[in-house]
Design a protein that fits this description.
Layout (H helix, E strand, L loop, with lengths): L5 H8 L9 H15 L5 E2 H8 L3 H13 L3 E6 L10 E5 L5 E6 L5 E7 L5 E8 L9 H12 L5 E8 L2 E2 L5 E4 L4 E4 L1 H9 L3 E5 H12 L6 E6 L3 E7 L2 E2 L30 H5 L1 H10 L4 H23 L3 E5 L7 H15 L8 E3 L7 H15 L3
Parallel strand pairs: 4-7, 7-11, 12-15, 15-16
Antiparallel strand pairs: 1-3, 2-3, 4-5, 5-6, 8-9, 9-10, 12-13, 13-14
Bound molecules: zinc ion.
Length: 378
């Protein structure tokens, strides 16, 4: 189910509405009101008019529609020293609608969460990732339906974090690990599930989740150490996609020309020292050298990140990955390596830290994408 349109609802209720407003103005008015209340701010209609610049009549109209849609609720009165009727407050009805976020990039697992409108996780589900290539879509839809069945409220939309190259129109251009190429994933799932669908690359999704729900700053790099190594880059609150949607694909940049041969045909790519499979294999061969192997990987990653840090002046670096790999030693080594190489009279020290959202960052980024797309709140 999707949010009803203002126009359709107006006809049904017969209540006075500004029916002559074009739909794009209605949409932007709705978004302005939601932004003024999100997250968890309670305001009177008069205050909403002041904040949004809309007329009181417009605000009352929008608020009535949003209450009907289950997105806002009335509650409490504004404290007032003046005599007369106190103003009734409205706020977001946090569990009025729910959102589903899926992370398709974790090794061996498809993971899903169901959240309320503020990103609080209400339910989880996961299934083993099918081995078949191209990976079929039915298991993804089954995972969604399991989460949908657990929801006590209508679903606002589905946000997906996919590995590989993803454009801004809902297509996966290439995801070799899943065997996908030129796949209109958002459209296929929209038709299969009857839900609004937002799609993003997993590292982009994770950095957006960290920004929206993890308290991350407007300038940030999030590095995902997974089957490969990729980064999401946020500059001035915008995700950097680049000319061909591959910004942040740092895994096959050569760090050591004399290094280990890589599956891509080159030698010494970042992934040969720092991906989960390469680290796991090397640690298995020499468990007593675990700390040294992780330190070397941290040095390679820190070295790779030094130039982008200097280029962008980003000073908040998130390193996300399995707890056995993204250890304190790894994070400390990345931080020390960047600071040794970059810090100067001009550039301050960077902070390297784990994700505030743990392993939920990418799925929560999917949720945040739905909230941005459908409600305009991020
Ligand atoms: Zn390579």
């Amino acid at each position: 189910m999707s949010v009803r349109t203002s126009t359709g609802h107006n006809a049904a209720s017969g209540r006075h509405r500004l029916a002559s407003l074009p739909s794009d103005i209605r949409r932007s008015n709705r978004r302005a009101v939601l932004r003024a209340l999100y997250p968890n701010r309670w305001r009177s209609r008069a205050d909403l008019a002041k904040i949004t610049g809309l007329s009181k009549v417009s605000v009352s109209d929008v608020v009535a529609t949003l209450i009907d849609d289950g997105l806002l609720v009335e509650g409490g009165y504004k404290p007032s020293s003046k005599p007369g009727k106190p103003a009734l407050l409205v706020g977001i009805q946090v569990q009025g609608m729910n959102v589903i976020g899926l992370d398709l990039a974790q090794a061996g697992t498809l993971k899903g969460i169901l959240t309320d409108l503020e990103g609080h996780v209400l339910a989880r589900a996961s299934i083993p990732a099918p081995d078949a290539k191209p990976m079929p879509l039915n298991p993804i839809m089954d995972l969604c339906k399991r989460l949908q069945d657990q929801s006590k409220a209508p679903i606002l939309g589905l946000g997906i974090a996919s590995p590989g190259t993803v454009d801004t129109a809902g297509r996966v251009l290439a995801a070799p690990n899943l065997g996908w190429a030129d796949l209109s994933l958002a459209q296929a799932l929209r038709e299969g599930l009857g839900l609004e669908v937002c799609l993003a690359n997993d590292a982009d999704s994770a950095v957006f989740g960290e920004r929206c729900f993890g308290g991350g700053p407007a300038n940030m790099i999030l590095v995902q150490i997974a089957r490969g190594v990729g980064a999401g880059v946020l500059i001035d609150d915008r995700i950097v996609h680049g000319s061909h949607y591959v910004a942040g694909e740092i895994g096959h940049v050569v760090i050591d020309e004399n290094g280990i041969p890589c599956a891509c045909g080159k030698r010494g790519c970042l992934e040969t020292t720092t991906s989960v499979p390469s680290l796991t294999a090397r640690i298995a061969q020499a468990p007593e050298r675990r700390e040294e192997i992780i330190t070397l990987a941290g040095q390679a990653l820190g070295s790779a990140l030094s130039m982008p840090v200097a280029l962008t002046n980003i000073d908040d670096i998130v390193v996300a990955g399995p707890a056995s790999i993204a250890t304190a030693t790894m994070l400390e080594t990345v931080q020390n390596t960047i600071n040794d190489r970059v810090r100067s009279r001009f550039i301050e020290a960077v902070r390297v830290r784990p994700s505030a959202l743990g392993s939920d960052a990418a799925a929560l980024g999917g949720v945040a994408g739905v909230l941005r797309e459908r409600l305009g709140v991020f």
